[in-house]
Amino acid sequence: MLNRILAMLINEAVDALALNVASKQDLELAMTKGVNYPKGLLAWADELGLENALQTLDSLYNEYHEDRYRASPLLRRMVKASQSFFQHEPAASH
Predict the structure, then answer these.
(1) Is there a contact between 28 and 92 (Cβ–Cβ < 8 Å)?
(2) Mind listing the pLDDT tens digit of every residue in the chain (94 residues)?
(3) In this structure, are residues 70 and 9 in contact, taking their beta carbons and an 8 Å threshold?
(4) How far apart (Å, rounded) are the C-alpha atoms in residues 54 and 24?
(5) CA torsion sign, 20 to 22 to 28 to 31?
(6) 4: Cβ–Cβ under 8 A, 6 or more apart, which residues?
(7) Cα 68 vs. chain centroid, distance in angstroms?
(8) Report field, pTM of the whole predicted structure over 0.85
(9) Contact 53, 7 (CB under 8 A)
(10) Separation CA 90–CA 33 (nearest Å)
(11) Closest by alpha carbon to 43, among 29, 56, 57, 54?
């Protein structure tokens, strides 16, 4: 159940990024400071693996055929290109 919920939340965050609702940093800040999640959803996606989130969503969509399980096109493209949100970026210096 946790994987289903987390995959859906990640998918919503990816869609928000794709639709330019907020930047990656703003999405992460909103989840960690606003909702008090232990990490942002995009960082969580990197940690769990984007392919795992996509596989969970596809499996749920194939079983239930409900739009809420339809994977974000950006998530699908990133998995195909073996990309991540943060892991391949240089660390920010303070």
Answers:
(1) no
(2) 889 999 999 999 999 999 999 999 999 999 999 999 999 999 999 999 999 999 999 999 999 999 999 999 999 999 999 999 997 654 444 4
(3) no
(4) 19
(5) negative
(6) 56, 60
(7) 14
(8) yes
(9) yes
(10) 23
(11) 29
